[in-house]
Amino acid sequence: MPMPAEWQEYSYWNSDQSEPLENGLSEHLRLGKLALMAGMTATTARIFAARSTIRKEGDLETMVSEVVSGSASCRCTLPDGRTMLASILLPGDMIGVSSLIDGSRSGSVEARTQMSVRSLSHAEVLRLAAEKPDVALWLLWHQTRENNRSNEWMAVLSHGNAREKIAFLLLDLYRRLQREAHVGDVPVRVPLTQREIGERLGLTLPHVCRTVALFRERGIVEVFYGGIDILSPHALMART
Amino acid sequence: MPMPAEWQEYSYWNSDQSEPLENGLSEHLRLGKLALMAGMTATTARIFAARSTIRKEGDLETMVSEVVSGSASCRCTLPDGRTMLASILLPGDMIGVSSLIDGSRSGSVEARTQMSVRSLSHAEVLRLAAEKPDVALWLLWHQTRENNRSNEWMAVLSHGNAREKIAFLLLDLYRRLQREAHVGDVPVRVPLTQREIGERLGLTLPHVCRTVALFRERGIVEVFYGGIDILSPHALMART
DNA sequence: CGATATGTTGAGACCCGTCAATTAGGGTGG
DNA sequence: CCACCCTAATTGACGGGTCTCAACATATCG
To answer: Residue B176 CB: number of other CB atoms within 10 A?
Structure first.
């Protein structure tokens, strides 16, 4: 993958933090995830239509779910009434792990496309975790990984400019989408509206458009109606 | 606490998310924390001098620690070489929980004042967690709470201006400091340099100074050499 | 007292937000 | 198939928030 030497990469940001664990935990984590997934596949999957509401903001969550297919957006309203896009949920992502343990009420979850979701009630998950320590361990690992991702996001959101923020978001989606369906490597189509990108990053739509236009002029991305094609993820990783 | 009615509060941001758990988990959490703390008090506390390094960036953490007294700063270097202030550690805060479970290497930890720290090795914590499910549960709860705090931070960092960011940071420190020593309620002295505030929030020192000056002119805070006194936390919570 | 760190202030530039108008894509009903 | 509408994307002019560079004042420490 030839790259000009003067390009510095965002090695810290968007790093895949899954180092091999030398302490023998990985086998326990594998078993824990397996047990949790087994409990979920035992129940019938729920199907949500596009643009339907999966969870209303402020409602108490009673289930832990895994996204099987489709994508959803998690939003929460800010104190001044604006609404921000908290996260994009893709296949493999979990919903409701935080509320399982601390009863917190997070934002709303809305299906962006038709979705299939496997769930398990909080009570059932807690029973599983008490019965099999590996399940509790996997939940702990999951929350820890979320934490590490949050820390990277905070670094970008606090110290990055619009180019860096948008590049980080696109790379994040790029990696997560590629993990699922790694058929054609490039381009990967990120199904995000420029308005959504702005809502996620705290940027206005016109400025998102202008910044994306810079990437487009350099041949790094291609813009279409309702999404962005990533042509050169390596160029996105490079600064300047 | 009389307040002009037109003031809106940051009810979402900086909210204390510890809702009472109705599912009987709180007793397990209490026991889990107790067991972990018992293991820590059994070991002798470590003392660090002010400005000494507790953990170097990139080093592998081998212990889980709790801050007993003093304060520390956790920094990490950004891809462009700048260094950001990731968090301020106060008495009661934990160090090294994330690395326990995923082997991640986070930033450096440096004592800001003389510090006293109680620790337990990763191996010992894992043994405790395997033996007593309540300990694993408490760790899970701890990481979940960290996650919720991170999400609030991301909302402020992405969608807030300098006034909101600084107010949020000061309120965060105010609440955490008050929890420890709630002798004189006001003023609470936040021992943060304006340079540090900027490093934490991604703002430059001159702009931090100008923004803090606004708060000072309104009688909300008082600035002194090396820190800020918070005179009116309620005014900090109010928007505008 | 000197040295260093911190806080303060000003001028100018740049990044980004605001408001507005325009173009284009995609769905829906006739 | 076409007319229509709604959403998404684009672009320009302007203003404000923040950064940059700089100088200076002040506090603390040795």
So the answer is: 18
Q: Which of B9, B21, B104 sits opposite A19 (nearest CB)?
A: B104
Give the Cα separation of B218 and B153 in Å (integer). Answer: 25
Mean pLDDT, residues A159-171: 98
Nearest to B110 by CA among B125, B95, B121, B99: B95
Q: What is the DSSP letter of A45?
A: P
Q: Is residue B69 pLDDT above 70, yes or no?
A: yes
- Rounded mean pLDDT, B150-166: 97
The span from the CA of B97 to the CA of B61, in Å, is 9
Closest-CA residue to B104 (of A166, A184, A15, A111): A15
Residues in chain B: 240
Q: How far is CA B84 from the centre of its chain?
A: 15
| Mean pLDDT calculated for residue range B134-163 | 96
Mean of the per-residue pLDDT values of chain A: 88
Q: At residue B180, does pLDDT exceed 80?
A: no
Say what the pTM is. 0.92
Nearest to A11 among B79, B122, B202 (CB): B79
Burial class (CB in 10 A: 0-12, 13-18, 19+), A159: buried
**Span A214-237, pLDDT tens digits:** 999 999 999 999 999 999 999 999
Chain B residues 157 to 176 whose Cβ lies within 7 Å of strand D are: 161-163
The pLDDT of residue B2 is 32
Protein-covered nucleotides on strand D (Cβ within 7 A):
7-13, 17-22, 26-28
Confirm if A140 and B101 have CB atoms less than 8 A apart.
Answer: yes
Q: Tell me which residue of B108, B124, B127, B131 sits closest to B61, measured CA to CA.
A: B108
Q: Give me the residue from B86, B159, B202 closest to A82, CB to CB.
A: B159
Peptide bond into A233 cis (omega under 30): no
When computed from its CA atoms, the radius of gyration of chain A, rounded to whole angstroms, is 19
User: Is the pLDDT score of B146 beyond 60?
Assistant: yes
Determine the distance between B211 (CA) and C9 (C1') in angstroms: 13
pLDDT tens digits for A9-35? 444 455 555 555 556 788 899 999 999
Amino acid at B159: H
Nearest CA in chain B to A62: B23
Rounded to the nearest 10 degrees, the angle between the axes of helix B133-159 and helix A122-131 is 130
CB A113 within 7 Å, strand C: no
**A130 to chain B nearest CA, in Å?**
7
